[in-house]
Structure formats: C-alpha cells, structure tokens
Design brief:
With 79 residues, this protein is of the alpha+beta class. The protein has three helices and four strands, in the order βαβαβαβ.
Length: 79
C-alpha cells in the first residue's frame, strides 16, 4: 500500500478528484466516502480522498497528480 500525504486544504482534495475523474491518473478507482456519496440519498462530508491504484502504476499516478499541481509531500511504500 502507498500513502500519499497532502497538505491540509480542500483545494488539494478537489484537484485530486478532478484529476482522477479526468482520466489522467492511470489504473485508479475512487473508494471511501466519495464513492459512497455516489449512492447516498443525502451527501456526506469527507476530509479525505481514498484511492486504489494498481501497484505497478503508482509512480505514474504520482507523476500525473504532481503534473496537475497536487502538492504531494510524501509517497511511502507501506509494505
């Protein structure tokens, strides 16, 4: 598993979501609170963007997010 820590701020979260939904991040799926909101009757707030990225595509995903201006502070392999 890889964890990417972002600085606090909704602008970073919004940029992540926009970049993922645009198709610029390879082999990725939104999960967690944002995914649940797709099916919820009433929207729920979340302070995180949870993603699943294919292990062999993590570096590409990090590069795509950085290219979109997401200020990734740390990418750590947690295996």
């Amino acid at each position: 598993m890889t964890t990417i820590d972002l600085p606090d701020g909704s602008a970073s979260l919004l940029t992540v979501v926009q970049t993922v939904l645009s198709g610029e991040v390879p082999a990725v799926a939104l999960i967690g609170g944002l995914a649940v909101n797709h099916w919820a009757r009433e929207p729920m707030a979340t302070a995180a963007v949870d993603l699943v990225i294919a292990a062999e595509r993590v570096e590409e995903a990090v590069q795509a997010l950085r290219a979109a201006g997401v200020p990734i502070a740390l990418a750590t392999d947690c295996n």
